[in-house]
Amino acid sequence: MSDEENLTRHAPLSPSAVGGRLALIGGVLFISALAFAYAGGWLTPDRLSPTRMLAALSDRGGNPLGHRRNHSKGICFTGVFEANGAASQYSIAPMLVAGRYPVIGRFAIAVGNPDASDIVGRVKSMAVRIVSPNGQEWRSGMNNSPVFVVSNPHDFYELTLAQDIDPATGKPDPSAMKRFFATHPDSAPFAEWSQTAPWTASWADQFYNGLDAFHFIDAGGASHLVRWSMEPTVSPTSVPHAALASMGPDFLEHDLIKRLADGPLTWHLVVTLAEPGDPSNDATKVWPSDRKRVDVGTLVVHKAEAEADGPCRDFNYDPTILPTGIAVSDDPLLPARSAAYAKSFDLRTAEAADYPRTPRPAGDRP
Amino acid sequence: VRTEPDRFSNLQRVLHWLMAIIVIAMLFIGVSMVSTLTPSFLTLISVHKPLGIAILALAVLRLGVRLRLGAPPLPDDLPWKLKRWRQSSRILCSMRS
Predict the structure, then answer these.
(1) Contacts of A342 in chain B (CB under 8 A)
(2) How far is B37 from chain A, CA to nearest CA, in Å?
(3) pLDDT digits (tens, 9 = 90+) for A118-137
């Protein structure tokens, strides 16, 4: 190293030059910190974040620690999806090729309280995870309502706030829900279903609708806008709401176990193909009833297991986890569900001690 | 014993600054991703995952380049504690192998 270079490196700076350089470094750090804070939402506390959404969902009674923060009360099931191949002309998804594919699923009711009585479960749900031999997965969470209650995450947040427990009464404010529906006309189709659809005492006799729209991608790369439903093979038995009250808090689980003891339960997976103009981004609107519907296979449910030790416990039924051949649409609920489910998964897996598994007998350990 | 080079090679400099950009981008992408429910969530996560794998691959490449090309000596005016740092990380690395 030459003397000249040494001199340059060690030339003392004047105090003002040092101050200027420190200010420059500080300025860069400050702006970076500000940009980082903006990116993380700390400068915009009104932004609807997964954390805020999950806080609202968690505040609907009961102790949700360790549980899913929505559809908190449920039961695991295992079974098989038997594809008939009819969907292969619309999608190259490997589990739509004729064949049998294992399924781990979950039945639930759309409540925030994992200890709720089944009578409050107006919305029942089915979640499935269908796995292909090459390891691809199709996860879907479906509800028994024909439409979703809102079209976007912000309205869902407002709806959730309307269900929050008032600490003074221990119950939600009864007028809050009325106010929500009065101010959200898009929610009217759901409200009508909710008020008029017959109640049943079973998960087995319900339609489960994917609600959000998706794209099927065929072998030629063409995209088909679709929605899908699981259609039951058990005809519904209407039970007056008042009669459900005498059936105990867990009648859905008892019904399911009783039915499965007699044999498997089946649903037909039916795909509806959109016509031009059918909304892809609004799950509050049904598509016209004359749309082409294709029965693409049968879901066969063999076995139910309590969630605490069941195979569905640690799956996140994120509807954006899709195989090749199926893609998300521009429905704003899909990214919101993905982000919120991920937060719920992080919370409940960190709280696993609050939702203990059944201890196994000492001799039973592998 | 290999002689220490005067300066980091161009390849090492490119790797260093490329990784610096990616790591800082990852911090921003990560913190944005977990704070939003908008459609950008899916876009951000689809960038976050391959970028994370890219950092791992670049780190492995960087280690290989470092073992092959070495590094210049630390500046004479660096406090001795910082010099120890490099020595101790060498010791740690040699203990692992």
Answers:
(1) 34
(2) 4
(3) 999 999 999 999 999 999 99
The whole-model pTM stands at: 0.89
Closest CA–CA distance from residue A200 to any residue of chain B (Å)? 34
Choose the closest CB to A36 out of B31, B34, B38. B31
Per residue in B51-66, pLDDT (tens digit) is: 999 999 999 999 999 9
Q: Using CB atoms, which residue from A10, A40, A338 is nearest to B32?
A: A40
| Partner-chain contact A39 B28, CB within 8 Å | yes
pLDDT at position B91, please? 76
A241 is catalytic: no
Distance from CA of B94 to the nearest CA of A (A): 31
| pLDDT score for A3 | 47
- Identify all chain A residues contacting B42, using CB atoms and an 8 Å cutoff: 320, 328, 334-335, 338
State the SS3 of chain A.
CCHHHHHHHHCCCCHHHHHHHHHHHHHHHHHHHHHHHHHCCCCCCCCCCHHHHHHHHCCCCCCCCCCCCCCCEEEEEEEEEEECCCCCCCCCCHHHCCEEEEEEEEEEECCCCCCCCHHHCCCEEEEEEEECCCCCEEEEEEECCCCCCCCCHHHHHHHHHHCCEECCCCEECHHHHHHHHHHCHHHHHHHHHHHHCCCECCCCCCCEECCCCEEEECCCCCEEEEEEEEEECCCCCECCHHHHHHHCCCHHHHHHHHHHHHCCEEEEEEEEECCCCCCCCCCCCCCCCCCCEEEEEEEEEEEEEEHHHCCCCCCCCCCCCCCCCEEECCCCHHHHHHHHHHHHHHHHHHCHHHCCCCCCCHHHCC
What integer best gives the mean pLDDT of chain A?
Answer: 94
ipTM of the shown complex? 0.87
